[in-house]
Each structure stands twice: as structure tokens, then as C-alpha cells.
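Agenda item 2: NDP complex prediction
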Amino acid sequence: MSAVLMDGKEVSKKMRVDIRADVDAFKAETGITPGLAVVIIGDDPASRVYVNNKKKRAGHCHMYSREYALPEETTQEELVKLIDELNHDDEIHGILVQHPMPKHIDESIIFRSISPAKDVDAFHPENVGRIMNGNFDFLPCTPAGVMALLDEYGIDPKGKECVIVGRSNIVGKPQAMLLLHRHGTVTICHSRTKNLPEVTKRADILVVAIGKAKFITADMVKDGAVVIDVGVNPDSEGGLCGDVDFAEIEKKASFITPVPGGVGPMTITMLMKNTLTAAKRFAGK
Ligand code: NDP
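Presented output:
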């Protein structure tokens, strides 16, 4: 058996066509161009690639984007001041501060300073709370991208054993909530989980977000499982690989995401969707 490849690149391309049409209709109706501000502090090469991709995708979706590239030594106060200006800027509907941020900046203070209405990453405590109770405008981009991929391939989490490896605030925890809202039976694993392979082997849907190259091996996966690999790691050939051993697991899973080209493109597409939603809310829609 060989798994169906969940092609995030293709799915997100298709979604962007719909978003672009929606943006064009919105502009025609309101005269408002959805605007995204992307703030990057320092010169981390990976962050720079992500920021460039986000700007490029905003352009593809006929949105306006503005970049603020700030030096590493930017103070927390300076950053909060910029965010406050953007909170009051009517051309900007979504604000994204690329992370990781330099160590002297407290990310939680920065995320809290973004207006919840412009918080297109959904990291503000108000938006996090709304994800808990299922009453949300924005979903965090990576878990929302995973849900969109599942939907696209006709995979319904209802009643399924869903196991998530990783409990970060940006991926693992919100992913658990979204699968729970869709009636999955959810287990979250982390670095202190005992007998991890026993737990992962129960999964009908396995989502892995730990940041360790090829950590999940074929013996940890049930035959026919859906395997979603969120991880992005450098591999030994100078390329990228995920957190799961794709070559071996692909032989026994029913569906699997590649890295690159799986969850990554979906994440950026969900950011565009959130920016359009923010602009619509701004326009009272
Ligand atoms: P974090 O480092 O914030 O969290 C990692 C999680 O993995 C933690 O909960 C940690 O457990 C858990 N973990 C670490 N080692 C083990 C282990 N041996 N067994 C079980 N659990 C373990 O990572 P992120 O969630 O931010 O990112 C995870 C990966 O996803 C990274 O590779 C990142 O680059 C990628 N990523 C990809 C995105 C995309 O769009 N494709 C977007 C966001 C992230 P504990 O809490 O106990 O320490």
C-alpha cells in the first residue's frame, strides 16, 4: 500500500484563487483593499524566507502588504509603539509579528499588544480564548491549515482517535481544540509522555509538531493512519524534512503530508484568509 499524498501546495493554490476572487469582490463593493503589516526583527534567514513568502502571497491574493524590517536591537517599547500605530492604521487590517523574536523581547507582551481584531495569527489571549469556546473569527494559521487539508481530502475527524505530538501554543494545543470541535477523540503528547509509540499507534489521525527530524518512525504508526507532518527541519542533504520518516511511513499510512509542500503552504494561505476576514470585520461585514 502507498499513501495518498496530501498536496498542500496544490490545495493552497486552489484556495488562493477563491480568496483572490473574494478579495476582488470585497474591493469592488467597499473600496477597501485588505492590508497586512508584517514586522520582522533581526536577520534570521528562515524568518526572512517566511516573511518574503507572506508578502508574495498577499500580492497573489490582490492584497496590500507593508513590511517593517527592524534591527535586532529594537526595544520592546519601540515594537509596542509601532504595533499601537498599526492598530490605529486604517490601511492595515492584519498585523503579524514574525517569531521567534530576539531574546530581550517578551513575545507574550507583543502578542497581547496587537488588537484582537487585527490579530491574524490568533495569538492574542482573547482570540486564544475564543478558540477554546468555538466562537472565533481567526484560527491560528497552521492548525487551521491542517483542518483545511483534512477537509479537502474528505477526512472527517468525528469519532476518530486523533493523536497530536507536541503541545506548543501555536500548533499542538490549538490543533487539539480544532479536532475536538470536530468531534475527534483527542490525545496530546509531549516530551514527558510515557510509551509514546503505544499512544501514537492508536491514532487514526496523527499530527506531529515537535521539530525533530524523522523522529516518528514507521513502527509508531498504525496501518492506514492519516499522518500530518507539521515539522520543518534541515536534512542531511541540505534540504528540508519533517518530523516523520516519510519514506517508510508512506508505505503504511492511508494519507500523508510531504515536507516541504504539505502543511507549510497551507499555513500562509490561512494567513491570507484571516487577513480578508479582518478586513471584512473592519468594513462591518
Ligand atoms: P515547539 O518547540 O514550541 O514545541 C515542540 C513540542 O514538541 C513541545 O510540546 C515538546 O514537548 C514536544 N516534543 C519535543 N520533543 C519531544 C519528544 N521527544 N517526544 C514528544 N514530544 C516532544 O515547536 P512548534 O510547535 O513551534 O513547532 C514544531 C515544529 O513545527 C517545528 O519543526 C516548526 O518548525 C514546525 N512548524 C511548522 C509550521 C508550518 O507552517 N509548517 C508552522 C509552525 C511550526 P514539551 O512541551 O514537553 O517540551
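Discussion summary: The first strand starts at residue 4 and ends at 5.
Owner for follow-up: CH.
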